[in-house]
Each structure stands twice: as C-alpha cells, then as structure tokens.
Design brief:
The structure holds 2 protein chains of 2 kinds.
Chain A lengths: L4 E3 L2 E5 L4 E6 L6 E7 L6 E6 L5 E4 L2 E5 L5 E6 L8 E8 L9 E3 L3 E6 L1
Parallel strand pairs in A: 2-11
Antiparallel strand pairs in A: 1-3, 3-8, 4-5, 4-9, 6-7, 7-8, 9-10, 9-11
Chain B lengths: L4 E3 L2 E4 L5 E6 L6 E7 L6 E7 L2 E5 L6 E5 L5 E5 L8 E8 L7 E2 L3 E5 L1
Parallel strand pairs in B: 2-11
Antiparallel strand pairs in B: 1-3, 3-8, 4-5, 4-9, 5-6, 7-8, 9-10, 9-11
Classes of the chains: A mainly beta, B mainly beta.
C-alpha cells in the first residue's frame, strides 16, 4: 500500500537538542497529522493541521502544513528522554466522497541520549 | 474518559483459521477505522465505517471483512489466515469521518 516519504528514518540526539523531521507525498492532502507511537501502544495524536501554510504548536512541538499541500514537517525543541519513540506523519483527504482514511509515513525512530 | 478499547490484546492462530477482533470507540464517536501495522512500517488502512455503513476499503483481499454495530462498536474478521497476516491491528475512532482519528493500543495477531 501507499506510504508517505518520511525522513529521517532514525535519529540519535542529545537531551536538550532540537530535532526536525519531515514528510512528503506525491498526492495532495487537505489534512496533515502527526502521531507518536511507543512500544506496545497505539499511535497518539500530537498535532493536526488543516490549512496549507498553517503553523501549529503543542508545547515543545511545532508542525507546519506545506504550501503545496504535499508535505509537512515536525520540530521538537529541547528534547527530553520521554520524547523517545516512533513519530509518524499521516495525510488525510477530508473532501466529501473520499474515504477519508489516513495514509501514513514509514516513521522516524527518535532516540534521546542523556 | 475511556479511549478506544480493543480486544483481545494478543492472539495466536494457525494458518487457515479465522479471527474476530473487536473495537469500542470513544464515547460519542460515530466513525471507526481499521489499520494493519506490520513491524517497521506505518499503519495501512483496511476499512472505515460511519453510522454502520462502509465508507472506504483499502487494498486488502476479500478475506478481510468488518462491520459496525448500532452502538458504534466494530468487528474486524479475517478468514483463511496466512502467515503474512501477522501484524498489529489498530482501531481508530473519530467523531465524524473527516475528524482526527484516535487509536487504540491494538491487537497483536501472530499466525503460526
């Protein structure tokens, strides 16, 4: 099945550093979402973006919906140990008549070193 | 408030058997979606239901079927299980089908 191009695949950073990851698609989406998944758990919604160009923050997390509607990025500032996990981007078409399913990226595995 | 609940949490089956996975959405949510997540990949869409009607189907064989009940809970059925069906099966609910989806912790299905 289709998956979005998410990079990097994995990251090792020092505690306190900032981190950035991004997601690109060959198709247009009108909603972008970012999820975090910890081992043995389901994905947890972090940020939802609804408008091209939109920049949204949730605490230390900031995400942007690309102008072309084909990309999005997520920044995490001042990383802490509990940021460890797999981060997934997901695109969604919400126009009427579409199935409105989420199309996911392949994930970014984040490791925070003390 | 209870989130999305799925049962069972783990399941072991053999090839050729069938399985039924269950999902209870967040209270008030009318849309339920099912995803398959194999190790190392993002979730893949299987089905979406809204108000008991199928609204979308992913690229999965007819061995996969689902339904939604009047209380908005849902079942995913898989027949003639194959080794490749081993995965984490995730259920997600949303208020309406175009709202952000919230996931349960999944059912880990292992096929021997």
């Amino acid at each position: 099945g289709q998956q979005l191009n998410q990079s990097p695949q994995s990251m090792f950073i020092q505690e306190g550093e900032d981190v950035s990851m991004n997601c690109t698609s060959s198709s247009i989406f009108n909603t972008w979402l970012w999820y975090k998944q910890d081992p043995g758990e389901g994905p947890v919604l972090l940020i939802a973006l609804y408008k091209a160009g939109e920049l949204t923050s949730n605490g230390r997390l900031t995400a942007q919906f690309g102008i072309t509607r084909k990309d999005s990025f997520l920044n995490i500032s001042a990383s802490i140990p509990s940021d460890v996990g797999i981060y997934f981007c997901a695109g969604q078409l919400t126009s009427s008549g579409s199935a409105r399913q989420l199309t996911f990226g392949s994930g970014t595995q984040l490791t925070v070193l003390p | 408030d209870a989130g999305v609940t799925q049962s069972p949490t783990h399941l072991i089956k053999t090839r050729g058997q069938h399985v039924t996975l269950r999902c209870s959405p967040i209270s008030g949510h009318k849309s339920v979606s099912w995803y398959q997540q194999v190790l190392g990949q993002g979730p893949q869409f299987i089905f979406q239901y809204y108000e008991k009607e199928e609204r979308g189907r992913g690229n999965f064989p007819d061995r996969f079927s689902a339904r939604q009940f009047p209380n908005y809970s849902s079942e995913l059925n898989v027949n003639a299980l194959l080794l490749g069906d081993s995965a984490l099966y995730l259920c997600a609910s949303s208020l309406f089908s175009n709202q952000p989806q919230h996931f349960g912790d999944g059912t880990r299905l292992s096929i021997l």
